Structure formats: C-alpha cells, structure tokens
Amino acid sequence: MDHPDHPIGGMYLPSKVFCALIEHTGEGYYGDKTEAAVSALIQQWIATTPAAPCPWREDGELTDSATAEAPATPPLAAPASAPGSGPATSRGYQWKQLFLPNGTELRAIYGGRPLYARVEDEQILSDNGPTTPSRLANRQGCGTRNAWQAIWLRLPGSTRWQRAAECRQD
Questions:
Q1: What is the dihedral of CA 85, 105, 133, 44, to 10 degrees?
Q2: Would you give the distance in Å from CA 108 to the centre of its chain?
Q3: Does the pTM of the predicted model rise above 0.90?
Q4: For burial by CB atoms within 10 Å, which of 56, 85, 94, 133 has the most?
Q5: SS3 of residue 44 by DSSP
Q6: Who contacts 120 (Cβ-Cβ below 8 Å, separation ≥6)?
Q7: pLDDT tens-digit profile of 102-123?
Q8: What is the enclosing helix (H) or strand (E) of 9?
C-alpha cells in the first residue's frame, strides 16, 4: 500500500501535494529544484504572515494571547544596498544544516581552475547566475563531486577559507 504522506526533512507532505511539486519542478524526486521551491514558499509565507505568540517566553513581552497582537515578521529579503546597512548576516542561504550568511564566498577548484560564487540576496550567485552548491561543485568535470568536500567557504569578515564539510561539523 502506498504511504499517503512523503517525508521531507522531518515534515510530511500529502501525496498529492508532493507529486504535484515534483512534477512542477521536473525532478521526479526531492532534489535541489524541489528544495528551492519549498524553501521559497516557506520564506514567502514567513515574510507575509504575522508570527504566532510564543507562550514559552519568560521575558514579559507577551501579554494575554487573546489580546496580544502577533508581532509583524520583517521581510526576509532586505535590500543589500540600503543606506547605512552593512551585510545582512541574519539573511543568507540555507544549505541543508549549514547557514551561509549574505556575503559568504564559495570556491570550487577543478583541474587547477577555481570557480567562485557569492551568497547575495539569499541565493548563491556565480558568473552564470543563480546556482546551488552541487551545481557549483560539478560545473566542471564529471558531475559526481560531493559539494561538501569540493566547496570551500569564506564567511563574511573572515580571511580564511574553510572546507564546507568542516563548517558543517561546527
């Protein structure tokens, strides 16, 4: 018997929703395009929906939930060029369990030739436009490289390059 729900990172989507999603992305499985679509939808929902009250907070900010208005959630994509604003380190690209703040640089080397990308406006941009870590790692070569091992990261404000796999362990 077919299971009615499909697990995606600990949550379950109804079968009809999952099938429509993967059909729309053209992947046939939960891959990079499907993950990006789900993430974009969640980010849009968060940006346009007031946050729910947090009953576990003890800082006295919360009043009676019947009369408290949920605080407005700030939009997720603040303009990077806003006057007087530095890099928005609370915004960036979520790569599985690793968060890459805006301004993070990515580097993949294949055959002695480096490829660079940068996290800007909550996406990874290379000279070919938006990309994913996997696409960056496999842009040159055979297409079977593990992005965690092939990509080096330099976080904003740092001068040191670190392998993505090492950052993931921290």
A1: 0
A2: 19
A3: no
A4: 133
A5: helix
A6: 80, 102, 103
A7: 999 999 988 888 999 999 989 9
A8: none
